């Protein structure tokens, strides 16, 4: 596995070359605001990296893991969708968008997903373990079989989203009732 450690990529530094990266590890790399359009990442690991506001038009992420990464404001819907698959652990994904993507069985563990847009996405079978979903948008989303048991601060309208066999805990059921504007004591 090729390794890229503690690299900062800006307009003034030696650029990360556009191409195909397979089984590579990126550790501590600064790629915020970087143009990753047309890059292909397959079976790669990003750890302790900052990709906030990176441009992703046509970028491919296949079996890519993000651990302890800052991924603020990313528009994942601009990615190449063929075989698109991620795993996120302890990441900050706030203000990002997964609009209209099919990301079945995606794992989000210990992530901050504040104001993330999941509108019209198919997240079937995904896990939102210990995630903060404050202000996250679920509109016409497919959430069948998703695990929200340890997620907090979500608001999901069962009338506007498919939640068949999704799992919730007794402690967070109020997130399914927000649309009814009722008081729960």
UniProtKB/TrEMBL annotation:
**Per UniProt, what is one Pfam family of this protein?**
Pentapeptide_4
Record-annotated membrane-spanning stretches: none
Protein's name according to its UniProt entry: Pentapeptide repeat-containing protein
Origin organism is: Hufsiella arboris
InterPro entries xref list: 5peptide_repeat, Pentapeptide-BTB/POZ_domain
């Amino acid at each position: 596995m090729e390794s890229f450690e503690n690299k900062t990529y800006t307009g003034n530094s030696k650029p990360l070359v556009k191409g195909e990266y397979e089984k590579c590890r990126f550790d501590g790399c600064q790629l915020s605001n970087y143009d990753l359009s047309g890059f292909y990442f397959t079976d790669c690991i990003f750890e302790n990296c900052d990709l906030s506001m990176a441009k992703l038009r046509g970028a491919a992420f296949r079996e890519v893991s993000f651990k302890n990464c800052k991924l603020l404001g990313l528009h994942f819907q601009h990615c190449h969708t063929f075989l698109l698959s991620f795993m996120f652990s302890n990441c900050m994904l706030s203000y990002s968008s997964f609009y209209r993507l099919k990301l079945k069985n995606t794992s989000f563990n210990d992530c901050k997903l504040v104001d993330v847009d999941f509108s019209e996405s198919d997240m079937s079978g995904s896990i939102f373990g210990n995630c903060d979903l404050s202000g996250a948008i679920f509109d016409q989303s497919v959430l069948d079989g998703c695990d929200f048991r340890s997620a907090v601060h979500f608001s999901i309208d069962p009338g506007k989203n498919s939640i068949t066999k999704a799992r919730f805990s007794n402690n967070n059921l109020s997130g399914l009732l927000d649309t009814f504007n009722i008081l729960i004591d």
